[in-house]
Design brief:
The chain starts with a helix and ends with a helix. It is globular and about 70 Å long. The chain contains 14 helices and six strands. It has about 300 residues and is mostly helical. Strands 1-2 form a two-stranded antiparallel sheet. A two-stranded antiparallel sheet has the order 3-4. Strand 5 (about 245) and strand 6 (about 250) form a beta hairpin. It folds into two domains: about 1-220, Rhomboid-like (Rhomboid-like fold); about 270-305. Helix 2 (about 20-40) packs antiparallel against helix 3 (about 45-55), helix 6 packs across helix 7 and helix 7 (about 105-130) packs across helix 9 (about 145-160).
């Protein structure tokens, strides 16, 4: 058991695996709730389990949300059913790795978080504004990372619409068609028993599309998320040991104590020769042959046009 915890700790100590961290957080919460369900059910305390899960669920009722504002975040890290989390995490991994490779880890995280928030706001909005759903407001609550995963998927599809996935029995399919299929599927299911959840998917999808389009025009919607991530990282960064110099009779701290967190490695805008070399490599070997740095250089160059 200690080996499992050591593996988890090592993954969280790494700086460039944000996608894995998101998947691990979802998995840990799922397993913790599963264990709690077994223990509380055997102890004939089923009501306690419902109360526990409700701490994570996003309520449709504004009156309940006022007392649980954190649920606008926690709901898209929480699952109860094995196939729900399995599908969402696979969907997130397939598309999230593309965003990570081309735009970097912090933008992938921003897409996930902002998509989840957008999906939650859409969910609350439709249940309180559309007459068809208003009768169910008090009893409706949502959990699951579907809206956040849809945001990442549509973001990747907007960024790289002609990138292909090799699907079993279907062969190579462009990801824009995969994303479009799931958007239509969610829209078709918006009048079923999980109508609110499926419409929340569309809120996440819209956020992913807008995020990439604005980024390509020079506006980054993720800046508030980056600022919060930077502050959170600084809060838990190990501080350097104080050094005392008796000769000068004063205490010196390492200069890095007061410096801001080092920004992530940036990719300079390449010159035309570099662009031509990258394009030649794509024509010969395809997008998959590019390194992460080459992909980011190509994206930076496209923003300047």
């Amino acid at each position: 058991m200690s080996g499992i915890f050591d593996d988890f700790r090592r993954e969280f100590d790494k700086s460039e695996n944000a996608l894995v961290k998101i998947i691990l957080i979802n998995t840990v919460i799922f397993l913790a709730l599963l264990l709690a369900k077994v223990v509380l059910t055997l102890g004939e305390s089923g009501n306690a389990y419902v109360w526990l899960v409700d701490l994570f669920r996003l309520p449709a009722s504004p009156n309940e949300f006022i007392y649980k504002p954190w649920t606008i975040i926690t709901y898209f890290f929480t699952h109860e059913e094995i196939f729900h989390i399995l599908f969402n995490m696979l969907f997130l991994y397939w598309f999230g790795r593309l965003v990570d490779e081309y735009l970097g880890a912090k933008r992938m995280v921003a897409l996930y978080i902002l998509g989840g928030i957008a999906g939650g706001l859409i969910y609350m909005g439709i249940y309180n504004l559309l007459p068809h759903f208003q009768a169910e407001v008090g009893a409706s609550r949502m959990l699951g990372a579907s809206a956040a995963a849809f945001s990442v998927a549509v973001g990747a599809s907007t960024l790289l619409p002609n990138y292909t996935f090799n699907l079993i029995f279907l062969g190579p399919i462009r990801i824009k068609y995969i994303a479009f299929f799931y958007i239509i599927l969610s829209l078709a299911q918006s009048i079923g028993p999980n109508a609110g959840g499926n419409l929340a998917h569309l809120g996440g999808a819209l956020l992913g599309y807008v995020f990439i389009k604005l980024l390509q025009s020079g506006t980054d919607l993720g800046r508030p998320v980056y600022a919060i991530m930077g502050g959170w990282s600084n809060l838990f960064r190990r501080r350097p040991t104080m050094r005392v110099t008796y000769r000068e009779k004063q205490v010196h701290r390492s200069a890095t104590l007061y410096s801001s967190a080092a920004p992530s490695a940036s990719v300079e805008i390449p010159d035309q020769d570099e662009i031509d070399a990258i394009l030649d490599k794509i024509s010969k070997s395809g997008y998959e042959s590019l390194t992460k740095e080459e992909k980011q250089k190509l994206f930076r160059a496209s923003q300047q046009k």
